User: Fold this.
Amino acid sequence: MSTAAPAVAMRGIRKRFGAVQANDSVDLTVAAGTVHGIVGENGAGKSTLMSVLYGLIQPEAGTIQIDGTPVQVRHSRDAMRHGVGMVHQHFMLVDTFSALDNIVLGAEPDWRLPVARAAARRRLEALMRDSGLQVRLDLPVEDLPVGERQRLEILKALYRGARILILDEPTAVLTPQETDQLFVTLRQLRARGTTILLITHKLKEIMALTDAVTVMRAGRVVLDCATADTSTDALAQAMVGRRVQLGRADAAAPRPSGAPLLQASGLAWRDSLGVARLADVSLTLRAGEIVGIAGVSGNGQSELLDALSGLLVPDAGTLQIASRTFTVARWLDPATARALAVAHVPEDRHRRGLVLPFAAWESGVLGYHTLPRYGRRGWMQQGAMLADTVQMMERYDVRPRNPQVASGQFSGGNQQKLVLAREAMPQPQVLLVGQPTRGVDIGAIEFIHGRLRAMRDAGGAILVVSSELDEIFALADRVLVMTGGRITGEMPIESCTEAGVGCLMGDATPSGIGPVMPALAAT
Amino acid sequence: MDEIAVGTLIASTLRVSTPLILCALAGCLSERSGVIDLGLEGKMLLTAFTAGAAAAVFGSLTLALLLAIAVGVALSMLHGYACVSHRGDQVVMGMAITMTAAGLTVVLGIAWFHQGGQTPPLPDAVRLAPWFAGIAHALRDAWAPIAVLAIGLLGHNGMVYVALLLVPAVWWLLARTRFGLRLRAAGENPAMVDAAGLSVQRLRYTALGLNGALCALAGSYLVLAQNPSFIPHMTAGRGYMALAAMIFGKWQPVGALWACLLFGFLDAAAIRLQGQPLPWVGAVPVQAIQALPYVLTVVLLAGFIGRARAPKALGVPYAKAH
Amino acid sequence: MTGSSQPLPRWFDLGVLPVFNLALALLVCGVVVLVIGMDPGQVLALLIKGAFGSRIGVSYTLYYATTFVFTGLAVAVAFHGGLFNIGGEGQAMLGGIGTALVALWLADSWPAWIVLPLMVFAAAAFGMAWAAVPAALQAWRGSHVVITTIMFNFIASALLSWLLLNVLKEPGNMTVESKSFGPGAHVPAAHEVFAAIGIEWPRSPLNACVLLAALAAIVVYLLVWRSRPGYTLRAVGFAPEAARYAGIRPRAQVMFSMALSGALAGLVGINEVAGVHGRLLLDYVVGAGFAGIAVSLIGRNHPVGIVLASLLFGALYQGGSELAFEIQGFSRDMVFTLQGLIVLFSGAMAQVAAPTLARLYFAFAGRRALAHG
Assistant:
């Protein structure tokens, strides 16, 4: 280990967003010329920390040193000047421009474009030879596959003199082959002396690629060591934490399996970039159980919820609800889903669950506005709608109790309770819930969890997607883990250990864990 | 072939197309940077009035042009202030400028010149003079194609040639300069431009400034070349036709040029074709020809004759994330 | 919407802000009046007198307001569905064409109680059809409805021109208009109605369509805020993703909002073509579509606001006409200027003043709370 100044030294970084302490006195030291991994679940604070380093966010306290020199990073311009480059999860590219133009924008060596392009091309060709990155410079970006676009982003940063490269979840959009190719590239860059900061939740990548790793949880650093000195289990444990007692009061006896209410098999879907967001997903929801889907968000959970509720038509797969079967040719739509007693509490309550300018009673019938009791022949029975909303507000303790208040004026917790009331009170057979307590205060969290359990006890089937492992452990009878669009693990709650689930979430093979899906045995 | 008739048709086309070309170029610059511009009509009208009034009062062609440009740029800056700095609705702003200009030009015209809204007729000395008129006349009796070209292309006033030259100039600006690259990026992915350390606002304001100047040239042309004075509502929807041409030309300067020439040709030919039976179609009513530019634009927008892809960030006010 | 975290109270948002914007527009207009050497106070006084100072003035004001109610409602309905309908001009033209076609076909041989309702229906249907095409292109082909409706305005103008010159013009007649409608197409004029109940009322273009306008405002209110189609319309306009989540089909809503919008704009035809002129002519729309945009913006897209704003604009148009008589050199175009300024301040620049006003409000409200606390 050299005694040279570390490439990056961040000390005492504090950043708060509203009530959440995203970074709580975080220290980070990255040795020059190494690949340093930063691991954590959603909300652990890793993206915030890197945004501070790159100048996108200003911390309330803390210092940054680059190559031993204290620096002020107020804007990404400053970061770039000090040699820091960032490759975001969502690429910042102009699709209709060529790769060359995208790289050169803002750093053109001449005001005349042909001259600038020629000069840039010379430099880039040398850079590509040096680093091993291959990008076809003259094609429009929209014609490039995702892996090549990512290399383009890396090249963009290198062109601007980045010696410290931050990569935010780079493999989220890559196929396994592209991932391997990326690793080759990163190793080559490291050999050239570039320092690489890899934000990821995939433990396999950490073990395969990094020299050192920092684990963050709830805004703090919980583990910081050389990769050689640790293991996936240890990382998983640190990532997930020794928190929740797995023995729940009500998990005493294993429940008998109820009748299957919803069966999905072989769901697959590719997004507009061609990335497979769902790959061969199958699951069954039975009466009287809560199934929790754990996993860092972005691994297909949202797409799965959308497919099951009729908002997304997959490329392949079937869905069976009650006696009806849906195929890709004639997929479910939200209205039909409701008619079949499948309710959906969406992940994004602001954009989907409510119409913010509507009054509470108008949002209270969203999706159910076509019911006969709410009106016949086009006329709306406002009285019935108001009465029902008042009842919802009473049962679910939504405050203020006034149904005329605009939906956008309620606090997050009350909004969520309203949406849950609307979806749960008609006693659906299946309830799909996305992030039930995101942005919700403690009191409301307990209330919502209680209601979900009550629904389960009454014989409903509930699917909960949550990026909070606490919540999954607190609610679920059966836990599924999704990574990369697949279900990579399934186990009853009794068999769950933090390390086991953490490993699965980190897309690594857990050692010594309870029953796992047979397909994983081959990995 | 009747050289005079064909040549005159070409000449008419160019004359009619000139204000369209200038406005369409203005629209290209603004919209490629991401700002919708429905105020082309109003800017052309108000600058036409300015040119006519200034020329009548000061008797100077240069001053008339400069004042018109000042007014055009001022209107575009107002558009920028409301829409770029304050994220106001760009469509509504364009309508507001057009509606206000329509009323204001007449009000001021009546008040200042007492001729029912018209500005006084301008003497030739103050108006744009024809160029190469002597050569045009001399070549009239030459070999047929030369005669046609001479009559069609020579003898126009300076603004026609300026407009034609501005097409490659604006193309060059957008496609071959650093500024053009950045401007186009601002219209496609302003977040990326911001992240690269550039000012989206400054790029859009610059585009709007150029837009205002070009609209002013179009307006000046109407009064200093085409008509001898300003007449109320003299733009007669040409600003919208320029908008249609810009869209039909897919937001490219050269494409817009062809579209303007096409629309100009239809306008020039409409009267001539009235009553004349065309092959296959029979007698086409003049109104059908008048409506054709708009129908073609709708057909293009509906995707039936190729795709018209607007700049991705067009019409979306940009707000910095942090 | 303001940028502050706390929302403004409804009365401020719906009451104070429009008045403030109107005041700004009037102020700028006053400056223009000064620039052209007149006295704003005198102009304003004459304007008010011209609009409300006599029975005939009031009649004209109401007659203008009728047209503006139709186009204002049209813009508002589309707005609630999340779309900007600038095609009111063209849709109004088509409405007039529909009215005229029915009238010319039936009015000579059939009585009014059969012909008039058919004319109303035709006006709405033609306007609806003219808006439906851009709507369908938006819903199915993604063509931007703002551009297509502008194009359709020009196409409508060409269509009207052709129809009048080639089909409907009376041979031997120099003016460009159709033949007069027969007795079956006669819309009762205000002075006739008053005469029937023994009150003497001066002749004016005011006719029974003013009642139709009032009815339209009520129907739009009920439809948009009290009916299920209105609920789904507003849901799509406010939150398209939530609407999809709720099982509402966005395409159907686009068609519905534009169709209704076009139908309302088409009703201008009944007022102008049938109620006033009794025959089809070239220029009966005269900017009513654009006035409708101004009316809707300052009326906050609500029927009550639109009715009030229409009365305001009707007064401006009538007062403006009177001013053109009284003051030499004054023309109606001052009203058009004011109209543009109103669109400027309440539409485009609404974002400029709103945060400052909000801050003033909260500062003031805060101080009062302290004083009373």
